[in-house]
């Protein structure tokens, strides 16, 4: 007989639990759920495509990272199914002990060849790849020079290493140079090829020059650049000609490759050292066979048909032109993320809700993901979006800005 559900509300709670429940963000989330204004943890009820079933409705989806549409590709799905049938649902252990499948090594070999490097190392998540790289490379006396808009996985890795984190201005290699010239400590610089909130790209060639001049290792996170930037889709490292020069490149499989997992790409000797030293790699279960096979098949499709990247770029260009034609000013970029600045957090959440009411899903980005007062509407473009969908979302964004009396230049409310 099933026991009735019950919580522990009647018993005294330890101080650490009281602190957990008293966090202001918890109260905000509870309020958002009560009033139907929580834009996160939306229940998805179908495969993620241009039209996605969410919360009982068919929604025009401009909030997904399925950039190339490969998460829904029949070949990728078949590869995942075949791998599950052959290898099982999971490996039930770490790569170190019993989970190192030939399939993992095949994907690593394909990734290193794709980037023209000699080594690659596959992780269960992209987060784990950054966490593992930072926490292994850095020591407590090292410096980690990190862009002020860097992803949490890098920040958490630096904290885990107990290294000294130094932030430089967003996409500002001269700020990095000024700081690193004064501080001669050993360390590294981490940038993203395509930044996940604004969608803008890092000037990698200049960052490389600064790193060489100051003795820093250069790490480039191409989570959003893989499959979206460069003629072959290697990312901003390809566009800027630094594929062979970056000390490490990190990627995720959960965006353009339509799966789940991540990898570090670099020189063979460095990768082999990481393989025996990286705790987030050694002490976690290996990727499921389905996720590895899906990523491998998606990578093969991308290699065989780089025109997929061009098709995505055309859709991105169409959306940007449509927004500009309606008086909006998206943040300059040619990547798959098209962000429009709204302003205050409340206005950003209101804009998200108005789009949702019109059957459109986008991502609201508020503080602390962006500086206070600089909230964004973040639109993610998929290759599989149709032109009419692009026009529909552009029309809706223009109407929302008008309804909320927002400045089309991203300066908050229009002055009365």
Automatic annotation (TrEMBL):
Transferase in keyword set: yes
Ranges where the Aminotransferase class I/classII large domain occurs: 58-395
Highest taxon above the source species: Bacteria
GO molecular function, one term: transaminase activity
Transmembrane segments: none
Essential cofactor(s): pyridoxal 5'-phosphate
Keywords annotated in UniProt: Aminotransferase, Pyridoxal phosphate, Transferase
InterPro entries: Aminotrans_II_pyridoxalP_BS, Aminotransferase_I/II_large, AON_synthase_class-II, PyrdxlP-dep_Trfase, PyrdxlP-dep_Trfase_major, PyrdxlP-dep_Trfase_small
Listed PANTHER family: CLASS II AMINOTRANSFERASE/8-AMINO-7-OXONONANOATE SYNTHASE, LD36009P
Protein's UniProt name: Aminotransferase class I/II-fold pyridoxal phosphate-dependent enzyme
Organism, scientific name: Corallococcus praedator
């Amino acid at each position: 007989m099933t026991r009735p559900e019950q919580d522990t509300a009647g018993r005294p709670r330890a101080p650490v639990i009281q602190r957990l429940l008293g966090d202001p963000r918890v109260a905000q989330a509870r309020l958002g759920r009560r009033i139907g204004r929580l834009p996160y943890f939306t229940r998805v009820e179908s495969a993620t495509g241009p039209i996605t079933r969410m919360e009982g409705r068919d929604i025009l989806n401009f909030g997904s990272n399925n950039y190339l549409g490969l998460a829904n590709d029949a070949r990728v799905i078949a590869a995942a199914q075949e791998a599950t049938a052959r290898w099982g649902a999971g490996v039930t252990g770490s790569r170190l002990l019993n989970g190192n499948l030939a399939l993992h090594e095949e994907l690593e070999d394909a990734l290193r060849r794709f980037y023209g490097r000699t080594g690659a190392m596959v992780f269960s998540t992209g987060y784990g790849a950054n966490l593992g790289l930072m926490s292994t490379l850095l020591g407590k006396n090292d410096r980690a020079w990190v862009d002020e808009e860097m992803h949490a996985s890098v920040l958490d890795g630096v904290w885990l290493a107990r290294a000294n984190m130094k932030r430089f201005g967003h996409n500002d290699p001269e700020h990095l140079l000024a700081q690193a010239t004064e501080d001669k400590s050993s360390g590294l610089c981490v940038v993203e090829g395509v930044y996940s909130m604004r969608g803008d790209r890092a000037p990698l060639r200049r960052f490389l020059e600064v790193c060489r001049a100051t003795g820093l290792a250069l790490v480039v996170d191409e989570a959003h650049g893989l499959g979206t930037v460069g003629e072959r889709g290697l990312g901003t490292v390809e566009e800027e000609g630094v594929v062979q020069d970056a000390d490490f490149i990190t990627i995720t499989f959960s965006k353009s490759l339509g799966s789940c997992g991540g990898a570090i790409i670099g020189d063979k000797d460095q990768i082999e050292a990481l393989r025996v030293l990286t705790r987030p790699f050694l002490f976690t279960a290996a990727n499921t066979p389905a996720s590895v096979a899906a990523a491998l098949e998606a990578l093969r499709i991308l290699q065989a048909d780089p025109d997929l990247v061009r098709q995505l770029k055309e859709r991105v260009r169409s959306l940007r032109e449509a927004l500009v034609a309606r008086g909006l000013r998206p943040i300059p970029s040619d990547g798959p993320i098209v962000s429009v600045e709204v302003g205050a957090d409340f206005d950003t959440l209101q804009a998200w809700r108005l789009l949702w009411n019109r059957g459109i899903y986008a991502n609201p980005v508020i503080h602390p993901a962006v500086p206070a007062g600089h909230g964004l509407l973040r639109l993610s473009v998929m290759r599989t979006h149709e032109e009419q969908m692009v026009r529909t979302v552009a029309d809706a964004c223009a109407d929302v800005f008008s309804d909320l009396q927002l400045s089309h230049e991203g300066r908050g409310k229009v002055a009365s």
